[in-house]
UniProtKB/TrEMBL annotation, chain A:
Superkingdom assignment: Bacteria
Transmembrane segments annotated in the record for this chain: 12-36, 72-95, 107-128, 170-189, 210-228, 262-284
Protein name per UniProt: ABC transporter, permease protein
Domain ABC transmembrane type-1, residue spans: 70-283
TrEMBL record, chain B:
Domain of life of the source: Bacteria
Protein name: ABC transporter, solute-binding protein
Pfam family for this entry, one: SBP_bac_1
Signal sequence annotation: 1-21
Lineage: Bacteria, Bacillati, Bacillota, Clostridia, Lachnospirales
Length: 292, 419
């Protein structure tokens, strides 16, 4: 092997070193440090820093605040994703229809998605207020004596958070499905109509099978975003009433940045990381099987 | 040859990019800001949104000869606390002086993140002019170091709506019986005798205030006075004398309701800027009043608070920072804050000189100081965690999810856990 060939052999290695170094610093190193921290009881404000092994991992399941956060996170992710898929598909179908102003509608539906979640959260805090909120103001136009504060009861507060999450991200989900719909040739629909298929049959036999992979692919990042969602709750309810709308990512932020319980927050972060990795793996496996 | 040069150039550019990226934030605070302006120290301020902030800054710069770089603290309380905690806990030297509230002070004073100021700023000659109870309880660490300069003296004042008082035909709220009568007389048609902000972190003030008024001890929930206070609040909710809706409210939601005449009385910090802006401040509208006595012995209790200027231990501009702090502890500094931000001077001698007799706060504040048991709020090192947990069980209690007895039991468990 001459010198030139030797150099050529090492060029790919040299070229990927920067990426490996950057990834190492920005991803691998934080994960390793977070895992190490999770084995310690680190309470910065009390000056505690002691090795406790996996005690934090056991304590998580005895902590009422965390149990409540896990419960709401599961509800939030499942309900929100369910509505994302159902309403997102319906909205995409509407946006795929031919009517005047379609382009305008496609543009304006994306406005909520373009707004920062913190801004939406702060606006929603007022929007759902019994005395000054636009939601109750609207309802009172039909039911004059209507009195209800959405953010003080567990169910309604959770519903309000989920509805704001949908209001923000659903249009984006729909637009992405719409991109899949636009790949379906008009000829296929025409052929189905000639064969006597009605609209429902066309949807279930042609449209849905052709966009299902698209939907499943979208479900991965959208579910992961829901699992790490923090800003909406932070601005809208601060996890209240009590801890009822405290998502797990919000709890991690509170434990780490407000309470400075770094060890405990690291434990929660590692558990969330494992859950997200697991979910992504299952989803990819499912999609591969579907492809086969 | 050209290829080699190109490779070297690319390599250099890449390395420069990485190094500049990594070291981008390592600049020292003394130097220049993004516009290239030189400054002597950096102040992390909560007052930048005030219309008079520019005048105040000019006054301070002229008086001290310092060029001050100001960083605006977030207006949201949680975000602000997180940012300040991060700056101090990581030894970030890019900020020299910060303004911290009592919650942060309770958390940070023994952490070693703040410099003691006994020998430099809070010297013995001026120390006696500040409220001793406040200095001792809130901003003195275990070693006896005073870690801050109180920016003002504030009270969790009792506010009443005079129009509603007149309408109810009640001329004073002096005792528990007066208070109960008032609740009964005015709570109807969407109006409540008492209003508050019971969001889980904000409600701490009112729980502690009522416990104090009933003669209890916030750190001892076995005492009957504590239970009596919580029962009193619970009964007010049940009798619709105070709304359960307020468990979602912070001050920004409570104050508009007060301005709209939805509440007969409430507790609130400050000199009533929000009421003044709404044209509702005045002896015939909304004004401060003496705290009612809820005990048979006629004792009254009130909390005092402040935001204190503190010196970051990691600061590299300590001389300039101490010069700034000395000015803030002086008559000139306190007068500037009073004029710009309506901050009542923390020093008694300065308040006497600077605040005109026409200021209604002056009379009320001096009455609070002389007629009430003035205390700092009861806080523990894990401040926000303790406050949030107490707020959470309080909300459950007020919603009827747990009984008052269960609340007291859980509250004592929390005290034991965090104390």
């Amino acid at each position: 092997m001459n010198t030139n060939n030797k150099i050529k052999k090492y060029i790919p290695v040299i070229l990927i070193i920067p990426i490996v170094v950057i990834r190492g610093f920005t991803t691998i190193y934080p994960i390793v440090i977070t895992f190490i921290n999770s084995l310690y009881n680190i309470k910065v404000l009390s000056g505690i820093h002691e090795f406790i092994g996996f005690k934090n991992y056991i304590d998580v399941f005895k902590d009422d605040k965390i149990i409540s956060s896990i419960k709401f996170t599961v509800i939030f992710v499942v309900v929100s994703m369910l509505f994302h898929v159902l309403l997102g598909t319906v909205l995409a179908l509407i946006l795929n229809m031919k009517f005047r102003g379609r382009r305008f509608l496609r543009t304006i539906v994306l406005i909520p998605w373009a707004m920062p979640a913190v801004v939406i959260g702060m606006a929603a805090k007022w929007g759902f207020n019994n005395d000054y909120g636009l939601i109750n103001d609207l309802i009172r136009r039909f039911v004059p004596d209507f009195q209800f504060n959405w953010l003080i009861n567990t169910g309604s507060a959770r519903g309000a958070v989920i509805s704001m999450d949908l209001w923000k991200d659903l249009p984006f989900f729909a637009i992405l499905i719409l991109s899949g719909l636009q790949f379906i040739s008009e000829d296929v629909y025409e052929a189905a109509k000639v064969d006597g298929a009605n609209s429902v049959q066309i949807f279930f036999k042609i449209t849905l099978p052709l966009i299902i992979k698209n939907i499943l692919t979208l479900c991965i990042p959208f579910t992961l975003w829901r699992l790490t969602s923090f800003d909406l709750v932070y601005a809208m309810t601060s996890g209240g009433p009590g801890e009822d709308t405290s998502l797990i990512a919000y709890r991690i932020a509170m434990e780490s940045f407000t309470n400075l319980n770094i060890g405990y927050a690291s434990t929660l972060a590692i558990m969330l990381f494992v859950l997200m990795a697991l979910f992504s793996w299952v989803n990819i496996r499912f999609m591969n099987k579907y492809n086969d | 040859m050209k290829k080699k040069i190109a490779k070297i150039m690319l390599g250099t550019m890449f390395l420069t990019g990485i190094l500049s990226g990594c070291g981008g934030n390592a600049k020292e605070s003394s130097g220049s800001d993004n516009s290239g302006n030189k400054y002597d120290l950096t102040l992390y301020s909560i007052n930048t949104t005030d219309a008079d902030f520019g005048d105040w800054l000019k006054n301070v710069e002229d008086a001290t000869g310092l060029k001050i770089n100001v960083i605006a603290a977030p207006t949201d309380s949680d975000t602000r606390q997180q940012k300040i905690t991060t700056i101090l806990s990581t030894g970030d030297s890019s900020v020299d002086i910060l303004e911290i509230n009592d919650e942060m002070s309770a958390s940070f004073k023994n952490s070693g993140w703040l410099d003691g100021l006994n020998d430099t700023v809070m010297t013995e000659d001026i120390r006696g002019e500040f409220a001793k109870g406040y200095l001792d309880q809130m901003i003195t660490d275990k070693q006896g170091n005073i870690i801050g300069v109180p920016g003002y003296a504030g009270y969790l004042a009792f506010w009443v709506n005079q129009k509603i008082l007149d309408e109810a035909g009640i001329d004073k709220l002096d005792t528990k019986e007066d208070f109960k009568k008032y609740m009964l007389a005015v709570s109807k048609d969407g109006r409540y005798g008492y209003g508050g902000s019971w969001e889980k972190t904000y409600v701490f003030n009112e729980i502690a205030q009522f416990v104090n008024m009933f003669g209890g001890d916030y750190f001892d929930w076995t005492r009957p006075e504590n239970k009596e206070a919580i029962q009193f609040l619970y009964d007010m909710v049940q009798n619709k004398q105070t709304p359960i809706d307020q468990i979602a409210d912070k001050y920004e939601q409570m104050n508009p309701k007060a301005n709209d005449g939805k509440y007969g009385c409430w507790f609130m910090w400050g000199l009533g800027t929000d009421y003044e802006k709404a044209g509702m401040l005045g002896q015939d509208k909304i004004h401060m009043a003496m705290v009612p006595s809820m005990t048979d012995d006629g004792k009254r209790a009130i909390f005092t608070d402040s935001w204190s200027y503190v010196l970051n231990t990691a600061s590299k501009n300590k001389d300039a920072a101490i010069k700034f702090l000395k000015y803030m502890a002086s008559e000139g500094g306190m007068e500037a804050s009073y004029k710009a931000f309506d901050r009542y001077p923390a020093r008694k001698d300065v308040a006497e000189k600077v605040v005109p007799d026409t200021d209604p706060a002056k009379e009320m504040y001096s009455r609070y100081a002389s007629e009430c048991n003035v205390q700092g709020r009861p806080m523990l090192p894990q401040t926000m965690e303790f406050i949030t947990d107490m707020g959470t069980i309080y909300q459950s209690c007020m919603k009827g999810e747990i009984s008052v007895d269960e609340f007291c039991k859980k509250a004592q468990e929390l005290v034991n856990k965090y104390k």
